[in-house]
């Protein structure tokens, strides 16, 4: 599989008495070394991005006919000093600030939005530092030039990071390179729950290779498990045997008095990461905060944020994007409408009653992709339903005409729902609206109604129709409980790639 194996030299044997070795003598050599070359690539990309930003500003100054730029610090253009600042000091300073802000921290590389947040904060720091230096040295800076360099660097760095992350994800999915081999420690149900969670996303780079159960081997007897299960073994010996680089303590095992602390002592200097997976499923990091009290780390879980300024911005963004989108794509909508009329005589649009925010019903707009007698034929196909939930799904639905299948594969049939977004009945991102003729939505499913349904959502970018009903509901509830503007933007970005791959669309 290409994972790094390791030995335990005598001088690096974990101490049995829990006394950490001197920081001056122990060697911090991590077993998983994928992040080292990956970080080196990021540094090179960031340097090239800042150099390119300086070149853009340089070219901008050359072509500018205005005199105000001559008063900026870029008046050094054409001198050796200009090249020194623009092509050496600025790129190296930028990368140094990226390093000190933690944007190369391996905990944030490859997954999540924290890496990008730190890049943006660094850009703000650079602008603030340049402004402070200009004030201290009484240098007349051109705000246009500083803004051009800052914005160009930020966009180029973010583009490079996104590109590098996509390459890493492809490598993890196809070859397993750049991933962590993980041993799960805890009761069997807890370990299997963590196993399911981490394997849902191969891009996360966490590969469980074994389970060490704490409730005795009898608990696993007769149960089929995806990886080998052990009990009563020395955990560190198990780590060596499977060449693991991460030890995950699951659920109640993390609450054993003193055991977690002693395990952390034993792992010091071995290069094995220790992570704790508490019994908090489907709760995102921003809602969880650690509040240590007298040495006891308490996890404080905040309520979901479904109101406030962020929610207001989301509503405003929905209306603006929907209005501009309908205006810009109106020619495409006209061509699609013509294609539908040529494929099958009948109405261009299909309108169906769906359940929306707070249980209110509304008519959803879609391009018609089925023959006009589709609803009458549905009763004869119920036994062929491939969905295990409230939605009717068939991969080869005979009610769909050929042009309609192309619309579904590319999700172009969903474009008229921008009208619903403009009217405030739907959102760009949210749980999919469910049919209103399937009775009341009780229990966990009803929690989906706390937010407006969306054109796209976590369900769509995670598998679409290939997911089971229970999995789709779980993803929708996760979105409701962990909503944020950043999360919405992430889902919109992922939607583009899902649509291009046409995965799970039928």
Automatic annotation (TrEMBL):
Residues covered by region (Disordered): 1-23
Keywords: Membrane, Transferase, Transmembrane, Transmembrane helix
Cellular localisation: Membrane
Membrane spanning residue stretches: 38-61, 81-99, 119-137, 143-164, 320-340
Domain spans labelled Bacterial sugar transferase: 314-500
Its membrane topology: Multi-pass membrane protein
Protein family according to the UniProt entry: Belongs to the bacterial sugar transferase family.
Entries under NCBIfam families matching the protein: EPS_sugtrans
Record-given protein name: Polyprenyl glycosylphosphotransferase
């Amino acid at each position: 599989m290409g994972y790094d194996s390791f030995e335990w030299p005598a001088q690096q044997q974990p101490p049995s008495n829990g006394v950490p070795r001197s920081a001056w003598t122990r060697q911090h050599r991590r077993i998983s070394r994928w992040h080292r070359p990956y970080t080196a690539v990021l540094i090179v990309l960031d340097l090239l991005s800042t150099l390119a930003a300086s070149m853009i500003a340089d070219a901008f100054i050359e072509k500018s006919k205005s005199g105000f730029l001559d008063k900026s610090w870029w008046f050094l253009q054409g001198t050796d000093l200009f090249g020194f600042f623009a092509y050496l000091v600025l790129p190296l300073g930028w990368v140094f600030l990226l390093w000190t802000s933690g944007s190369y921290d391996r905990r944030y590389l490859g997954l999540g939005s924290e890496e990008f947040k730190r890049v943006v904060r660094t850009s703000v720091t650079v602008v603030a530092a340049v402004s402070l230096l200009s004030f201290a040295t009484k240098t007349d800076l051109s705000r246009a030039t500083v803004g051009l360099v800052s914005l160009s660097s930020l966009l180029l760095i973010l583009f490079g990071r996104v590109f590098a992350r996509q390459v890493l994800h492809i490598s993890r999915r196809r070859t397993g390179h750049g991933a962590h081999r993980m041993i799960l420690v805890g009761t069997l149900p807890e370990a299997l729950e963590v196993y399911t969670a981490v394997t849902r996303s191969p891009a996360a780079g966490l590969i469980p290779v074994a389970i060490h159960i704490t409730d005795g081997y009898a608990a696993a007897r007769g149960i089929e498990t995806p990886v080998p299960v052990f009990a009563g073994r020395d955990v560190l010996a198990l780590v060596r045997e499977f060449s693991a680089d991460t030890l995950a303590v699951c659920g109640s095992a993390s609450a054993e008095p003193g055991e977690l602390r002693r395990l952390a002592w034993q792992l010091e200097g071995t290069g094995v990461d220790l992570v704790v997976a508490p019994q908090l499923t489907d709760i995102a990091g921003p809602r969880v905060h650690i509040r240590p009290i007298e040495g006891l780390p308490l996890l404080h879980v905040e309520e979901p944020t479904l109101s406030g300024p962020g929610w207001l911005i989301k509503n405003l963004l929905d209306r603006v994007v929907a209005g501009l989108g309908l205006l810009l794509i109106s020619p495409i909508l006209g061509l699609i409408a013509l294609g539908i009329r040529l494929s099958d005589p009948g109405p261009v649009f299909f309108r169906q009653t769906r359940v929306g925010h707070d249980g209110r019903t509304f008519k959803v707009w879609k391009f018609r992709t089925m023959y006009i007698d589709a609803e009458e034929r549905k009763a004869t196909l119920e036994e062929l339903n491939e969905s295990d939930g409230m939605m009717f799904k068939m991969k080869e639905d005979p009610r769909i005409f050929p042009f309609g299948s192309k619309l579904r594969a590319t999700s172009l049939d969903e474009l008229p729902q921008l009208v619903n977004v403009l009217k405030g009945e739907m959102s760009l991102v949210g749980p999919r609206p469910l049919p209103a003729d399937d009775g009341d939505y009780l229990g966990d499913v009803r929690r989906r109604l706390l937010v407006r349904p969306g054109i796209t959502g976590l369900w769509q970018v995670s598998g679409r129709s290939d997911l089971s009903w229970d999995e789709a509901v779980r993803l929708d509830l996760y979105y409701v409980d962990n909503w944020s503007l950043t999360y919405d933007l992430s889902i919109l970005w992922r939607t583009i790639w899902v649509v291009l791959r046409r995965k799970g669309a039928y």
